[in-house]
Protein backbone atom coordinates (compact mmCIF):
# COMPACT_ATOMS: atom_id res chain seq x y z
CA UNK A 1 0.00 0.00 0.00
CA UNK A 2 1.56 3.26 -1.12
CA UNK A 3 1.12 6.46 0.83
CA UNK A 4 -0.07 9.74 -0.58
CA UNK A 5 2.71 11.71 -2.23
CA UNK A 6 3.26 15.22 -0.92
CA UNK A 7 5.65 18.04 -1.68
CA UNK A 8 7.35 17.55 1.69
CA UNK A 9 7.96 14.02 2.91
CA UNK A 10 6.66 12.87 6.32
CA UNK A 11 10.26 12.20 7.36
CA UNK A 12 11.20 15.82 6.71
CA UNK A 13 8.15 17.06 8.62
CA UNK A 14 9.11 14.85 11.57
CA UNK A 15 12.33 16.82 12.06
CA UNK A 16 12.15 20.18 13.91
CA UNK A 17 13.97 22.01 11.15
CA UNK A 18 11.66 20.56 8.51
CA UNK A 19 8.57 21.63 10.43
CA UNK A 20 9.98 25.11 10.95
CA UNK A 21 10.75 25.55 7.23
CA UNK A 22 7.36 24.14 6.24
CA UNK A 23 5.34 26.42 8.50
CA UNK A 24 7.47 29.45 7.60
CA UNK A 25 6.88 28.93 3.89
CA UNK A 26 3.20 28.11 4.41
CA UNK A 27 2.61 31.22 6.55
CA UNK A 28 4.49 33.46 4.13
CA UNK A 29 2.51 32.24 1.12
CA UNK A 30 -0.76 32.56 3.03
CA UNK A 31 0.05 36.13 4.10
CA UNK A 32 1.10 37.13 0.58
CA UNK A 33 -2.07 35.77 -0.98
CA UNK A 34 -4.20 37.42 1.71
CA UNK A 35 -2.52 40.76 1.07
CA UNK A 36 -2.90 40.37 -2.69
CA UNK A 37 -6.65 39.87 -2.35
CA UNK A 38 -7.42 42.13 0.60
CA UNK A 39 -5.23 45.13 -0.19
CA UNK A 40 -7.37 46.31 -3.16
CA UNK A 41 -10.44 46.09 -0.92
CA UNK A 42 -8.68 48.08 1.80
CA UNK A 43 -7.51 50.64 -0.76
CA UNK A 44 -11.04 51.14 -2.07
CA UNK A 45 -12.65 51.39 1.38
CA UNK A 46 -10.07 53.85 2.70
CA UNK A 47 -10.02 55.81 -0.57
CA UNK A 48 -13.58 56.91 0.09
CA UNK A 49 -12.45 58.22 3.49
CA UNK A 50 -9.84 60.55 2.01
CA UNK A 51 -10.18 64.02 0.54
CA UNK A 52 -10.18 64.34 -3.27
CA UNK A 53 -6.72 65.91 -3.21
CA UNK A 54 -5.33 63.11 -1.07
CA UNK A 55 -6.75 60.43 -3.39
CA UNK A 56 -4.99 61.99 -6.39
CA UNK A 57 -1.72 62.60 -4.53
CA UNK A 58 1.53 61.04 -5.71
CA UNK A 59 2.93 59.12 -3.94
CA UNK A 60 -0.31 57.88 -2.42
CA UNK A 61 -0.93 57.68 1.30
CA UNK A 62 -1.53 54.26 2.80
CA UNK A 63 -3.63 55.59 5.69
CA UNK A 64 -5.94 58.61 5.34
CA UNK A 65 -4.50 61.73 6.96
CA UNK A 66 -7.97 62.95 7.86
CA UNK A 67 -10.83 60.48 8.06
CA UNK A 68 -13.84 61.78 6.11
CA UNK A 69 -16.81 59.38 6.45
CA UNK A 70 -19.08 61.93 4.77
CA UNK A 71 -18.04 60.42 1.42
CA UNK A 72 -20.34 57.48 2.12
CA UNK A 73 -23.26 59.63 3.21
CA UNK A 74 -22.84 61.86 0.14
CA UNK A 75 -22.77 58.80 -2.11
CA UNK A 76 -25.93 57.44 -0.49
CA UNK A 77 -27.81 60.69 -1.04
CA UNK A 78 -26.35 62.26 -4.19
CA UNK A 79 -26.29 59.10 -6.30
CA UNK A 80 -29.71 57.89 -5.10
CA UNK A 81 -28.29 54.54 -4.07
CA UNK A 82 -31.41 53.27 -2.23
CA UNK A 83 -33.50 53.52 -5.39
CA UNK A 84 -30.93 51.91 -7.68
CA UNK A 85 -30.05 49.20 -5.16
CA UNK A 86 -33.76 48.44 -4.88
CA UNK A 87 -34.01 48.19 -8.68
CA UNK A 88 -31.06 45.81 -8.71
CA UNK A 89 -32.53 43.63 -5.97
CA UNK A 90 -35.84 43.34 -7.85
CA UNK A 91 -34.11 42.47 -11.13
CA UNK A 92 -31.69 40.00 -9.54
CA UNK A 93 -34.38 38.30 -7.43
CA UNK A 94 -36.71 37.87 -10.40
CA UNK A 95 -33.95 36.50 -12.62
CA UNK A 96 -32.91 34.12 -9.84
CA UNK A 97 -36.46 32.83 -9.34
CA UNK A 98 -37.16 32.35 -13.05
CA UNK A 99 -33.81 30.69 -13.64
CA UNK A 100 -34.09 28.38 -10.65
CA UNK A 101 -37.56 27.18 -11.62
CA UNK A 102 -37.06 26.67 -15.35
CA UNK A 103 -33.44 25.46 -15.29
CA UNK A 104 -34.25 22.99 -12.52
CA UNK A 105 -37.27 21.67 -14.41
CA UNK A 106 -35.32 21.34 -17.67
CA UNK A 107 -32.34 19.69 -15.98
CA UNK A 108 -34.60 17.22 -14.15
CA UNK A 109 -36.38 16.35 -17.39
CA UNK A 110 -33.12 15.75 -19.26
CA UNK A 111 -31.57 13.80 -16.39
CA UNK A 112 -34.43 11.66 -15.09
CA UNK A 113 -37.33 11.69 -17.54
CA UNK A 114 -35.12 10.75 -20.51
CA UNK A 115 -37.12 12.49 -23.28
CA UNK A 116 -36.75 11.53 -26.93
CA UNK A 117 -33.71 13.18 -28.52
CA UNK A 118 -32.64 14.36 -25.07
CA UNK A 119 -28.96 14.08 -25.96
CA UNK A 120 -29.48 16.17 -29.09
CA UNK A 121 -31.39 18.77 -27.12
CA UNK A 122 -28.66 18.94 -24.48
CA UNK A 123 -26.02 19.25 -27.19
CA UNK A 124 -27.91 22.13 -28.75
CA UNK A 125 -28.19 23.86 -25.38
CA UNK A 126 -24.48 23.45 -24.70
CA UNK A 127 -23.66 24.70 -28.20
CA UNK A 128 -25.04 28.10 -27.19
CA UNK A 129 -22.13 28.45 -24.79
CA UNK A 130 -19.84 28.86 -27.80
CA UNK A 131 -21.82 31.84 -29.11
CA UNK A 132 -20.33 35.15 -27.88
CA UNK A 133 -22.72 37.07 -25.66
CA UNK A 134 -22.20 40.20 -27.76
CA UNK A 135 -23.60 38.42 -30.81
CA UNK A 136 -26.91 37.90 -29.01
CA UNK A 137 -27.39 41.48 -27.83
CA UNK A 138 -29.08 42.80 -30.98
CA UNK A 139 -31.53 39.86 -31.44
CA UNK A 140 -32.42 40.00 -27.75
CA UNK A 141 -32.99 43.74 -27.88
CA UNK A 142 -35.21 43.52 -30.96
CA UNK A 143 -37.24 40.74 -29.34
CA UNK A 144 -37.67 42.67 -26.10
CA UNK A 145 -38.59 45.85 -28.00
CA UNK A 146 -41.19 44.00 -30.11
CA UNK A 147 -42.77 42.60 -26.94
CA UNK A 148 -42.91 46.07 -25.37
CA UNK A 149 -40.75 45.09 -22.41
CA UNK A 150 -38.33 48.02 -22.45
CA UNK A 151 -37.97 49.63 -19.01
CA UNK A 152 -39.59 46.53 -17.55
CA UNK A 153 -37.91 44.02 -15.19
CA UNK A 154 -39.13 41.22 -17.47
CA UNK A 155 -36.48 42.38 -19.96
CA UNK A 156 -33.92 41.15 -17.42
CA UNK A 157 -35.81 38.14 -16.08
CA UNK A 158 -36.74 36.36 -19.31
CA UNK A 159 -33.32 36.35 -21.05
CA UNK A 160 -31.73 35.21 -17.79
CA UNK A 161 -33.75 31.97 -17.93
CA UNK A 162 -31.74 30.68 -20.90
CA UNK A 163 -28.57 29.86 -18.97
CA UNK A 164 -26.98 26.78 -20.46
CA UNK A 165 -24.15 26.57 -17.93
CA UNK A 166 -26.42 26.48 -14.88
CA UNK A 167 -28.73 24.00 -16.60
CA UNK A 168 -25.80 21.69 -17.32
CA UNK A 169 -24.51 22.07 -13.76
CA UNK A 170 -27.91 21.02 -12.40
CA UNK A 171 -28.20 18.11 -14.80
CA UNK A 172 -24.76 16.81 -13.84
CA UNK A 173 -25.75 16.90 -10.19
CA UNK A 174 -29.08 15.16 -10.82
CA UNK A 175 -27.25 12.42 -12.74
CA UNK A 176 -25.27 11.58 -9.60
CA UNK A 177 -28.21 11.23 -7.24
CA UNK A 178 -28.63 7.67 -5.90
CA UNK A 179 -31.03 5.78 -8.12
CA UNK A 180 -32.15 3.66 -5.18
CA UNK A 181 -33.63 6.69 -3.41
CA UNK A 182 -35.60 7.75 -6.49
CA UNK A 183 -36.82 4.21 -7.09
CA UNK A 184 -37.93 3.96 -3.44
CA UNK A 185 -39.95 7.16 -3.86
CA UNK A 186 -41.53 5.74 -7.01
CA UNK A 187 -42.43 2.51 -5.20
CA UNK A 188 -44.07 4.56 -2.45
CA UNK A 189 -46.35 6.09 -5.08
CA UNK A 190 -44.65 9.44 -5.58
CA UNK A 191 -45.13 10.92 -9.04
CA UNK A 192 -42.54 12.81 -11.04
CA UNK A 193 -43.35 16.21 -9.55
CA UNK A 194 -43.62 14.83 -6.01
CA UNK A 195 -40.26 13.12 -6.41
CA UNK A 196 -38.72 16.35 -7.66
CA UNK A 197 -40.18 18.43 -4.84
CA UNK A 198 -39.80 16.04 -1.91
CA UNK A 199 -36.69 14.05 -2.80
CA UNK A 200 -34.55 15.66 -5.50
CA UNK A 201 -34.65 19.30 -4.37
CA UNK A 202 -33.82 18.63 -0.69
CA UNK A 203 -30.83 16.56 -1.81
CA UNK A 204 -29.74 19.26 -4.25
CA UNK A 205 -29.27 22.16 -1.85
CA UNK A 206 -25.51 22.52 -2.52
CA UNK A 207 -25.87 22.84 -6.29
CA UNK A 208 -28.95 25.04 -5.94
CA UNK A 209 -26.85 27.36 -3.80
CA UNK A 210 -24.18 27.52 -6.50
CA UNK A 211 -26.72 28.23 -9.22
CA UNK A 212 -28.31 30.89 -7.05
CA UNK A 213 -25.00 32.67 -6.54
CA UNK A 214 -24.18 32.53 -10.24
CA UNK A 215 -27.61 33.86 -11.18
CA UNK A 216 -27.53 36.74 -8.71
CA UNK A 217 -23.96 37.78 -9.49
CA UNK A 218 -24.59 37.70 -13.25
CA UNK A 219 -27.46 40.18 -12.94
CA UNK A 220 -25.78 42.30 -10.26
CA UNK A 221 -22.64 42.93 -12.31
CA UNK A 222 -24.20 43.13 -15.77
CA UNK A 223 -23.85 46.52 -17.44
CA UNK A 224 -24.43 46.42 -21.19
CA UNK A 225 -27.84 44.74 -21.25
CA UNK A 226 -29.47 46.89 -18.51
CA UNK A 227 -28.01 49.98 -20.18
CA UNK A 228 -29.79 49.08 -23.41
CA UNK A 229 -33.20 48.12 -22.02
CA UNK A 230 -33.53 50.77 -19.27
CA UNK A 231 -33.56 54.26 -20.74
CA UNK A 232 -35.49 55.52 -17.71
CA UNK A 233 -32.82 56.50 -15.15
CA UNK A 234 -35.24 55.86 -12.30
CA UNK A 235 -35.40 52.15 -13.20
CA UNK A 236 -31.71 51.53 -13.83
CA UNK A 237 -29.75 49.09 -11.65
CA UNK A 238 -26.74 50.12 -9.62
CA UNK A 239 -24.19 49.00 -12.24
CA UNK A 240 -25.61 51.42 -14.82
CA UNK A 241 -26.41 54.21 -12.38
CA UNK A 242 -22.83 54.39 -11.13
CA UNK A 243 -21.65 55.20 -14.63
CA UNK A 244 -24.53 57.47 -15.60
CA UNK A 245 -24.35 59.58 -12.44
CA UNK A 246 -20.55 59.77 -12.13
CA UNK A 247 -20.02 62.70 -14.49
CA UNK A 248 -20.20 65.53 -11.95
CA UNK A 249 -19.44 63.52 -8.81
CA UNK A 250 -16.23 63.73 -6.78
CA UNK A 251 -13.92 60.74 -7.04
CA UNK A 252 -14.18 59.93 -3.34
CA UNK A 253 -17.98 59.89 -3.54
CA UNK A 254 -17.84 57.58 -6.56
CA UNK A 255 -15.46 55.22 -4.75
CA UNK A 256 -17.80 55.18 -1.74
CA UNK A 257 -20.72 54.33 -4.01
CA UNK A 258 -18.74 51.42 -5.47
CA UNK A 259 -17.98 50.13 -1.99
CA UNK A 260 -21.65 50.27 -1.00
CA UNK A 261 -22.70 48.58 -4.25
CA UNK A 262 -20.29 45.69 -3.68
CA UNK A 263 -21.32 44.99 -0.07
CA UNK A 264 -24.41 42.82 -0.86
CA UNK A 265 -22.52 40.43 -3.13
CA UNK A 266 -19.55 40.16 -0.76
CA UNK A 267 -21.89 39.44 2.14
CA UNK A 268 -23.79 36.88 0.07
CA UNK A 269 -20.58 35.06 -0.79
CA UNK A 270 -19.31 35.07 2.79
CA UNK A 271 -22.59 33.66 4.08
CA UNK A 272 -22.94 30.92 1.45
CA UNK A 273 -19.30 30.14 0.65
CA UNK A 274 -19.52 26.71 2.30
CA UNK A 275 -22.48 25.77 0.10
CA UNK A 276 -20.70 27.12 -2.99
CA UNK A 277 -17.62 24.98 -2.43
CA UNK A 278 -19.73 21.92 -1.60
CA UNK A 279 -21.90 22.41 -4.68
CA UNK A 280 -18.99 22.85 -7.06
CA UNK A 281 -17.24 19.83 -5.59
CA UNK A 282 -20.35 17.71 -5.80
CA UNK A 283 -20.93 18.74 -9.41
CA UNK A 284 -17.44 17.73 -10.50
CA UNK A 285 -16.85 14.44 -8.67
CA UNK A 286 -18.13 12.29 -11.50
CA UNK A 287 -16.13 12.18 -14.71
Summed up:
With 287 residues, the chain is mainly α. It is built from 15 helices and no strands.
What does this molecule look like?
By secondary structure, the protein is mainly alpha-helical. It has helices spanning 10-14, 16-47, 52-55, 70-78, 81-113, 118-127, 137-146, 154-161, 164-175, 179-187, 192-203, 205-221, 224-229, 238-244, 251-283. Helix 4 (70-78) packs across helix 15 (251-283), helix 5 (81-113) packs across helix 9 (164-175) and helix 10 packs antiparallel against helix 11 (192-203). It is flat.
Q: Determine the N-to-C terminus distance.
A: 25 Å
Element order: H for helix, E for strand: HHHHHHHHHHHHHHH
Average predicted confidence as pLDDT: 85
- Rg (CA only): 25 Å
Strand content: under 5%
Outline type: flat
Main pleated-sheet profile: none
Count of DSSP H/I helices: 15
The secondary structure category is mainly alpha
Topology overview:
Layout: H1 10-14, H2 16-47, H3 52-55, H4 70-78, H5 81-113, H6 118-127, H7 137-146, H8 154-161, H9 164-175, H10 179-187, H11 192-203, H12 205-221, H13 224-229, H14 238-244, H15 251-283
Notable traits:
287 residues, mainly alpha, flat
Amino acid sequence: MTGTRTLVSPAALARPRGRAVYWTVFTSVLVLFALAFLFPVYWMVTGALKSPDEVARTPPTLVPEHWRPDGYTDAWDLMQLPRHLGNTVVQAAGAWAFQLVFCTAAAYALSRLRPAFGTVILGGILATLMVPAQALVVPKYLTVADLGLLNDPLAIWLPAVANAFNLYLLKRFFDQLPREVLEAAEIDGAGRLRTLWSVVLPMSRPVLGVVSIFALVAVWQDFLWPLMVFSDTGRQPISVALVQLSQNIQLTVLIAAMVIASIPMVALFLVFQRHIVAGIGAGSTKG
